[in-house]
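Blinded run. Sample ID left blank on purpose so nobody reads anything into the name before looking at the predicted structure. Input follows.
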Amino acid sequence: MSIAMLKIILKKQKYFFIIKEKFTIWKESKMISYKPLQKLLIDREIKKQDMMRLAEISSATMAKLNTNEYVSLEVIDKICKALNCQPSDILEYIPE
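Blinded prediction complete.
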């Protein structure tokens, strides 16, 4: 293996660790809560399975919502369209 190849590998690993570190920090802080979504579903008497079908999201995504893990804005958009609501109706910011 050449020195140039080794530098590329080490550079990629460095970026991987930086990304992983930033994700871990965000994941541990859990600044976003999806409790308002749970409340909205209860208030509207919508089962989680029905919401998943309406919003076309997977069970893995639903599990992330249940544990306040990161989901993309695309998922938030799908849920808002399916439930005819605003993002503030399904999530809340919790300061540290």
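Unblinding after everyone has recorded impressions. The first strand starts at residue 32 and ends at 33.
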